[in-house]
């Protein structure tokens, strides 16, 4: 559909309602379980690592109807600076010029980052494995598939084996609140070997603790006999989302084991302990996401305790040229 569009930046609170309406109009057609609300959008957009002036963009019809929204998340680290592009286009306006304008905006913004930082950049995006139209569109723009991520689930009512940490290791709870710096270091050292890793910051942790669901009992850390944080499991129940969907689900949000402590059964023990906490909280289904090619063997671990794949997401990327760097 060829129309004249107006592109503009995010202007604040008044944009939240039309953005939420656009996302939910897409959800009504796509059924991806990715609807949103004004409150959820506010939490995400107000996060400390979101550049609201430069990394959010809206597309409107001449009548002022919002039909496209895009957000870039650009971690401030790495030899190559990545821009993660998330976008939605109203179902009535797909397949025209809107998607191309969104990708063009993302490329232009990342080239600005390259000039400012003097490093190569890439644009990344993702979608469900079953969304052939989105995959073909991204590939037509020069994106290539790099990775598959699986959503997995398990019924909480199924028996959960008893967790066993190595001798003299202890399980502590609530360390994100009690010892945030050490928890952030543990997180980063646990995921440093993972594909496309970007460090967690203390500012981000503090923001999530203040704005997202948190229960100390779901915040588990394995501590070695000499007092080191060796591994962690963090679980979440999104009560508002469960109310909207009518489901009763809990998440293994993150699970990791620090270098030097792997292959001792710590990750398995923490996973089982987290599952027990969610089971005790009364959830019906336990969910998680995993890199299908995780170098730590996470997929096999999850399968071994009863998790099964429900769907896959694909990560795609496109390297962007900066002529100044080439010279």
From TrEMBL:
Name the domain of life this protein comes from: Bacteria
Domain (N-acetyltransferase): give its ranges: 171-327
InterPro entries tied to this protein: Acyl_CoA_acyltransferase, Bact_Acetyltransf, GNAT_dom
Record has Transferase as a keyword? yes
Keyword list, A-Z = Acyltransferase, Transferase
The name of this protein is GNAT family N-acetyltransferase
Phylogenetic placement of the source organism: Bacteria, Bacillati, Cyanobacteriota, Cyanophyceae, Oscillatoriophycideae
């Amino acid at each position: 559909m060829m129309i004249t569009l107006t592109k503009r930046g995010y202007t604040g609170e008044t944009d939240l309602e039309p953005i939420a309406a656009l996302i939910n109009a897409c959800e009504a057609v796509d059924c991806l379980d990715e609807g949103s609300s004004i409150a959820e959008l506010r939490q995400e957009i107000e996060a400390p690592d979101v550049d609201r002036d430069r990394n959010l963009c809206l597309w409107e019809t001449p009548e002022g109807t919002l039909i496209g929204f895009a957000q870039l998340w650009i971690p401030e680290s790495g030899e190559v600076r990545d821009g993660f592009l998330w976008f939605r286009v109203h179902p009535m306006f797909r397949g025209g010029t809107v998607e191309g304008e969104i990708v063009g905006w993302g490329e232009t913004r990342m080239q600005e980052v390259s000039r400012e930082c003097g490093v190569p950049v890439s644009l990344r995006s993702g979608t469900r494995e079953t969304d052939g139209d989105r995959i073909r569109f991204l590939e037509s723009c020069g994106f290539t598939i790099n990775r598959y991520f699986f959503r997995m689930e398990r019924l909480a009512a199924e028996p959960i084996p008893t967790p066993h940490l190595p001798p003299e290791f202890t399980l502590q709870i609530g360390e994100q609140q009690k010892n945030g710096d050490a928890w952030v270091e543990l997180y980063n050292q646990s995921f440093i070997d993972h594909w496309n890793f970007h460090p967690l910051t203390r500012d981000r942790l503090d923001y999530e603790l203040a704005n997202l669901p948190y229960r100390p009992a779901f915040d588990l850390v394995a501590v070695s006999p000499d007092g080191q944080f060796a591994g962690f499991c963090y679980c979440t129940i999104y009560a508002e989302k469960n109310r909207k969907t009518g489901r009763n689900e809990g998440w293994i949000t993150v699970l990791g084991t620090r270098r030097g402590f792997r292959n001792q059964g710590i990750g398995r023990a923490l996973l089982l302990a987290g599952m027990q906490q969610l089971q005790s909280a009364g959830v019906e289904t336990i969910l998680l996401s995993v890199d299908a090619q995780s170098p730590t063997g996470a997929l096999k671990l999850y399968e071994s305790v009863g998790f099964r794949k429900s769907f896959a997401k694909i990560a795609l990327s496109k390297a962007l040229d900066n002529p100044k760097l080439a010279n």
